[in-house]
User: Which sequence fits this backbone?
């Protein structure tokens, strides 16, 4: 009995940890996920995001994969004074749909996608003692349905965010040429 109790406690802790992890799209297919996406909505606890969210517009992300399976993301955000470009590279974590960027201490997971219309992506970044969590609704076209927005809103509290951290981004063609 004294051996069984610690094993049960350890098993329970493992189950709790597994249950707390963010899920990844089952049978994720990188080739189908690659291409251009519009960021239609996002929620984050990042202090910089929260300060800027009311003035943000829809951005564009172009995703490709290297022969080694790394996820390459080119992101363009429209800002009042022009377009801000970011190039990000994530290594595959060992599970398809889960990527990490060790230098930036980022964890990216494709939670759900139908590949042709929408994707919901979760990002976690460790900055010193602060952990920033983000959730993004990506769309192949800038328009989104009320049903997808509702699904996205329902996921927000499941990743530790609140609905006041959400912004539904207005459409923008401001940086379309910058992504090419």
Assistant:
């Amino acid at each position: 009995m004294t051996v069984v109790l610690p094993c049960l406690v350890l098993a329970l802790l493992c189950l709790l940890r597994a249950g707390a992890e963010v899920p990844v799209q089952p049978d994720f297919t990188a080739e189908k996920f690659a291409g251009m996406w519009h960021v239609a909505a996002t929620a984050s606890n990042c202090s910089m995001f929260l300060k800027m969210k009311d003035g943000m517009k829809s951005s564009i992300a172009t995703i490709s994969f290297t022969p080694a399976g790394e996820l390459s993301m080119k992101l363009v955000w429209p800002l009042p004074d022009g377009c801000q470009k970011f190039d990000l590279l994530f290594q595959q974590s060992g599970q398809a749909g889960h990527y990490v960027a060790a230098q930036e201490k980022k964890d990216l997971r494709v939670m759900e996608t139908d590949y042709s219309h929408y994707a919901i992506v979760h990002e976690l970044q460790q900055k010193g003692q602060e952990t920033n969590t983000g959730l993004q609704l990506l769309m192949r076209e800038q328009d989104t349905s009320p049903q997808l927005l509702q699904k996205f809103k329902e996921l927000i509290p499941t990743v530790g965010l609140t609905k006041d951290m959400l912004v539904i981004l207005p459409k923008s063609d401001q940086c379309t040429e910058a992504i090419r």
